[in-house]
Design goal:
The protein is of the alpha+beta class. The chain contains ten helices and 18 strands. The protein has two domains: 136 residues, Creatine Amidinohydrolase, Chain A, domain 1 (3-Layer(aba) Sandwich); 213 residues, Creatinase/methionine aminopeptidase superfamily (Creatine Amidinohydrolase). The structure holds zinc ion (2 copies).
């Protein structure tokens, strides 16, 4: 956490530039990943008010009184509030109420109840205007700095180490739940702070469910086994998928796996910063369609990763936004055949200005256990 102070100050300055551009005098940040990005604070309860110029203010509660001191760096004043954070925030705004105040709020990260509280406040204080905003901090988060990239690299390495240790322990007769438990143990043992999402372990016909939950189904010879999981390091996530087969693969296993692997290869080599998300998506989608399985690839190609496992930018057939240089995205084509099984392979890729770099090194070839 040593670099949070400087990185945080730089991030706050960039947000303040964006606030001036949006004609806002301040932004109330309520999304915890956005608060962590801007201030370094990783607790579960906080509000952050960022003015267009000057220091930001962060409110949290007694549980985090010690932690907030070690995590929050330059440019953020911290207040430990014994009662309601919202009450404290509104009180502060009331006291500093002279002149017109145009304060943005994050429409995607606020409950209806909280929204009512401050809309009522604005009605009482005529000088206060709340303005809905979207994606102000998320847009900054799309572009990773060197510190963030280093954290994601470590999260990828942890996930790969865990998978490497888990695969030799998998055998016929184990349940999906047992495999998920072993993988979670190995993730922790390799240093993961937690799990960015519940590990997906899906065997046989269940591997055709793109977001299957592990069950007590025993793994049988001839099953595909789809494993989608990630690690968390210093707050940052990785997200990987491999599909293995139990016993010798059939021709159909090979055909489907080869097609997905080649689609991933063409997309991870062909994706570029500046390309629209939909054009990146199309590289893999067209490849799979040419192989005759276009109908069997129904989800988008990938998503950004960072403090959250699903964040901007999106690689999907409806994503018109260009992919920024410095983004880290997943590329995860799949083919899902209902009643038989499916394959997904997923890697994490940095979009450097001069081309993509695949962060994950785990072999993509079909492994039989
Ligand atoms: Zn995944
Ligand atoms: Zn993913």
């Amino acid at each position: 956490m040593t670099t949070v102070g400087t990185a945080g100050a730089d991030r706050l300055a960039r947000l303040q530039g964006a606030l001036a551009g949006a004609d806002l005098e301040a932004l109330l940040v309520t999304a915890l990943p956005n608060i962590r990005y801007l201030s370094g604070f990783s607790g579960s309860n906080a509000l952050l008010l960022v003015p267009a110029a000057g220091d930001a203010t962060l409110w949290t509660d007694f549980r985090y009184a010690t932690q907030v001191k070690t995590e929050v760096g330059a440019g953020v004043r911290t207040l430990v509030e014994p009662n309601s954070l919202w009450g404290a925030l509104l009180g502060t705004l009331r006291e500093s109420g002279a002149g017109a105040r145009r304060i943005g709020f994050e429409t995607e990260h606020l409950s209806h109840r909280e929204a009512h509280r401050f809309l009522d406040e604005a009605r009482d204080a005529a000088a206060l205007t709340w303005r809905p905003t979207t994606h102000l901090v998320e847009a900054l988060r799309e572009v990773k700095d060197a510190d963030e990239l280093a954290r994601i690299r470590t999260a990828v390495a942890i996930a790969e180490a865990a998978l490497e240790r888990t695969l030799p322990t998998i055998g016929v007769g184990q349940t999906e739940l047992e495999v998920a438990g072993r993988l979670e143990f190995e993730l922790r043992r390799a240093g993961s702070e937690g799990f960015p999402f519940e590990c997906i372990v899906a065997a046989g016909e269940r591997s055709a469910l793109p977001h299957a939950r592990p069950t007590a189904r025993p793994i049988a010879a001839g099953d595909f086994l789809l494993i989608d999981f990630g690690a968390v390091h210093a707050g940052y996530c990785s997200d990987l998928t491999r599909t293995v087969v139990l016993g010798p693969p059939s021709d159909r296993h090979r055909e489907i796996h080869d097609l997905v692997r080649e689609a991933l290869g063409s997309a991870s080599a062909g994706v570029r910063a500046g390309m629209r998300g939909r054009d990146a998506d199309a590289i893999a989608r067209d490849y799979i369609a040419r192989g005759g399985y276009g109908e069997a690839f129904g989800h988008s190609l990938g998503h950004g990763i960072g403090l959250e496992v699903h964040e901007a930018p999106r690689l999907s057939s409806t994503a018109d936004a260009p992919l920024p240089a410095g983004a880290v995205v997943t590329i995860e084509p799949g083919i899902y055949l209902e009643g038989w099984g499916g394959v997904r392979i997923e890697d994490d890729v940095v979009l450097h200005p001069d081309g993509p770099e695949v962060l994950s090194r785990f072999p993509r070839e079909l492994v039989s256990l």
